[in-house]
Amino acid sequence: TSTPYFHLGTFVSWDYVVFACLFVVSSGIGVFFAVKERKNPSSEFLVGGRQMTCGPVALSLTASFMSAVTVLGAPSDVYRFGGSFVLFGVAYTFVVIATAELFVPVFYRSGITSTYEYLEMRFCKGVRMAATLIYILQTVSLIVLFLNFTFLPTVTGFNLWGSIFATGVVCTFYCTLGGLKAVVWTDAFQMVVMVVGFMTVLVQGTRKTGGAASVWEVAKNGNRLDIFDFDPDPLRRHTFWTISIGGTFTWLGIYGVNQSTIQRCISCKTETHAKLALYFNLLGLLVILVCAVFSGLIMYAFYANCDPWTAQSVTAPDQLMPYFVMEILGDYPGLPGLFVACAFSGTLSTVAASINALATVTYEDFVKQCCTNLSNKASGWISKGLCIVFGVACTTMAVAASYMGGIVQAALSIHGMCGGPMLGLFSLGIIFPWTNSMGAAGGLTLGIALSFWAGVGAFIYPALDINTRPLSLSIEGCLQTNSSDPTTSVPPSYLDPTALPSRSSLADRWYSMSYLYYSAVGFLATVTAGLLISFITGTAGLLIFITGTVSPVYYYTVLWSCCKTPRRRH
C-alpha cells in the first residue's frame, strides 16, 4: 500500500483564533438583535418586521444557497469530472428569473408567513399539512447532511463531535435570540468570509502552481476544460442538458418554493426589494460558482502528477479541498483557519436559515391552527422554543449520522427527491387555475412515489463509470514505497467496456438516470397527474375537456387574477 506523500501541518493557535472569531461574531449579531428587538411582537421575530432591504437579503440568500457542499464539494467535482460544473450558472439564472417573476409575486401579495398557507388558500388544509410535513422531512435531512464535517478530523485534526456540536449550538443560539434579522445579517457577514476564504485559496494556489497560464495548460491537457457536452442521453451524469435543464428543476424545487428562501423575500419592505434581492443574489451565486470551479482547476493542476485520493492520502473526495488548503496554506498561521471558517460559514448560514424556516412553518401551520388567540408575547416565546427544539434535534441526529456514512447520502437524496414534487404542487396552484384539491393531492402522491423510486433505486444500484465519466487521475509523480512502478488511475469502463458488470435493464436505465433529473421526474409526474385527476374529478374540468371552449384570453385572465391576489400584509 501507499503512504502519504505530503507533509501536512495541523491547526495551530492562530487558526483556532481566526476560526473562533466566526462563531463569536455570528453569536454577537444574534445578541445585538435580541437586545434591539426585545420589545417587538412575534411577527418581527418571524419575518424581520417585513422591513428588510434588498442588500442584506441578497447576501443572505447567496450565503445559505452556497453551503459547505459548494465550498468543498464543487472543487472536488471539478477535480474529478472537469469544469462542466460551471454550467450550473445557466441553471442558477433560470431559477432566479422564475422565482423573481413567477413565485415571489404570488407569495408576497398574499401576505402569508408560511408558503404552505398558500396551499390552503388555493386547495385545502389537508394538502397544506401534507406539504408541510414533507418540507420538515426535507429540511431536517438537509441540516443533518450539512452538519456532518466528516472531512475535518483526517485533514485538520479537528474533533468531529466538537465541530458538529459547536455549529449546532451557535446556529440555534443566534436563531433563537435574534430571529430572521439575525439570520439575514449573520449570513451577510458569513458571505464575506466565504469570498475572502476562496480568494485566499485562489491567489496562493495559483502562485504555488506556477501562475494562471500554467494552471490553464495543465487543466487543458487533463481534459478538465471540456465543458460543453451536448449528448442528450439522460443517463449521463453531467452534460449541458442535464445541468441546464435538470439543474434548473433541482434548484428551483429547493429555491423557488422553499420556505427558507421565500421567507426572506417576503421579509423585504416592498416587492421590488424582494425581486432586486434575488437578482443581486444571482451575481453572488455566479461569483461563488466561478471561485469554486477555478479552485478545482487549480487543485487539479497542483496534484496533476500525484493524486492524493488515488494515493490513499485522503479517504474521500470531499477531503481533497481541505487537504489542498492545508498543503498550500499550512505555512501561514491563521490562513487554514480562514478557509475552514469559509466552509463553516456556508454551513452556518444554511443551517440557521433552515432552523428559522422550520420554526416558522411549524408555528404557522400547526401551533396557530391548534392554539388560537395567542398573545404576541406567547407567540414569541413559542417561536423561540421551536428554534431550540429543532436545533437540538438536528444536532443530535447529525452526531448519530456521523457513525453511519450512508445516511448522509440518503439525506441528500431525500432532499432532492422532495423538491420536484413540491415544485409541481405549487406550479399546479399558480400556473393552472383549474386544478382542484384532489388533483393536487393525487399529483403530489405520484410525484413523491416516482422520485423516491428512482432515487432509492440509484442508491442501491449506483451509476456506472460509463455514465458518470470520471477523468483520469495520475500518481506518476508520487514517491512509492511499496511499488516499483508508478501507475495512473483510469476509469476501467474506458479501458474495457466488456468488463462492465451485468445488471438488470431497470438498473441500467431507470436507476442510472442522472441525479439532476430526479426533481424533473417528480415535477412532471405531479403536474401531469394533477391535471388529469382535476379534469376527471372536476365538473368544470370535464366541461373544458369535452367542449374545448377555453380560449387563451380566458386562461391568461385567470392566471393574472391569481397573481394579483389581494394583499394581506401584516
TrEMBL record:
Its main location: membrane. It comes from the Eukaryota. It is found in: Cell membrane. It comes from Salmo trutta (Brown trout). It is a multi-pass membrane protein. Belongs to the sodium:solute symporter (SSF) (TC 2.A.21) family. Keywords: Cell membrane, Ion transport, Membrane, Sodium, Sodium transport, Transmembrane, Transmembrane helix, Transport. The gene is SLC5A12. This is Solute carrier family 5 member 12. One of its GO terms (molecular function) is symporter activity.
